[in-house]
TrEMBL record:
Organism of origin: Candidatus Thiomargarita nelsonii
One Pfam short name: Zn_ribbon_DnaG
Keywords: DNA replication, DNA-binding, DNA-directed RNA polymerase, Magnesium, Metal-binding, Nucleotidyltransferase, Primosome, Transcription, Transferase, Zinc, Zinc-finger
GO annotation (BP), single: DNA replication, synthesis of primer
Co-factor(s): Zn(2+)
SUPFAM superfamilies: Zinc beta-ribbon (SSF57783)
Keyword Transit peptide: no
Protein's name in the database: DNA Primase
GO molecular function annotation: DNA binding; DNA-directed RNA polymerase activity; zinc ion binding
Superkingdom assignment: Bacteria
Length: 96
């Protein structure tokens, strides 16, 4: 099934990928000073509190506290689309 991502692959990816380019594929970033801002993909909001730092290759959300590197973003973003994550049946089974 889903295998582990090799550590070397991750290191390689981090050194090659610009976090701004990567995240810009998923959410529309706007340049704001030295950083980029966007509406956070991890919680609902109307004003952008999701910040991406090109210098630090790091993202941070002032609204929900989500933060991490390019890899963290990819993994967290993938979880958003994970079907069992929000499956109500799982909750029902636990209420016994
Ligand atoms: Zn957020």
């Amino acid at each position: 099934m889903a295998g582990r991502i090799p550590r070397t692959f991750i290191d390689d990816l981090i050194t090659r990928v610009d976090i701004v380019d990567l995240i810009d594929n998923y959410v529309s970033l706007r340049k704001s000073g030295r950083n980029y801002t966007a509406l956070c993909p991890f919680h609902n909001e109307k004003t952008p509190s999701f910040t991406v730092s090109s210098d630090k290759q790091f993202y941070y959300c002032f609204g929900c506290g989500a933060h991490g590197t390019a890899i963290t973003f990819l993994m967290n973003y993938a979880h958003l689309n994970f079907p069992s994550h929000q499956n109500p049946h799982i909750r029902c089974q636990r209420q016994t």
